[in-house]
Amino acid sequence: MIETSPADAPPSASGAIIGPDGLRRPAWAAVDPMLRDYYDTEWGVPVRSEHALFERISLEAFQSGLSWAIILRKRPGFRAAFADFNPDRIAAFDDDDVARLLNDEMIVRNRLKIRATITNAQATIALREQGGLVDFVWSFQPDETPEPATQADVPTRSAASAALSKALKKVGFVFVGPTTMFALMEAIGMIDTHLQGSHRRGSSGVWG
Questions:
Q1: Residues contacting 90, CB < 8 A, separation 6+
Q2: Active site residue 138
Q3: What does the pLDDT look like over 1-53, one tens digit per residue?
């Protein structure tokens, strides 16, 4: 999940904080302008295109074990290095591309995660024969969404994220564990974990 996915707020973080603009946000999005803008304009907004969803899955995988702020700051570098996250182009990456990426200071240089991105691009293409990545992922939208009052109330995984993780692995994806998939579900609006009182609560239009 992004609040612990970006791990920029402690587990004991309180409820939504009033910012200088008078709007309430969680602690992780209340100070850093980059994170605040991401929270206000992107996080929790429904993603329903293959390209955008593949990018989110890829970046969530790279985030594993790191602060989301690191990934967000490097996102322009990631987009340049990974052909703007075009699955068809990435699926054709070879050992020379892996070597190039391992020398690219603009991204997180992790061999396993780089190869996972290539593997997941190939799996994304294969999944088109089953209706495509978007319909596949969104089919795991749960019937209910969390309603956290404080950061401590936000889960880090769920039955739905575990099921999505298992299903994606079955069709060839890697680095898509239940916690990572919960973060994805938050980021793309499949669930709404905006804190009660946050000015973004209910903004996705998915949960009202």
A1: 82, 83, 117, 118, 121
A2: no
A3: 444 444 344 433 468 999 889 999 999 999 999 999 999 999 999 999 999 99
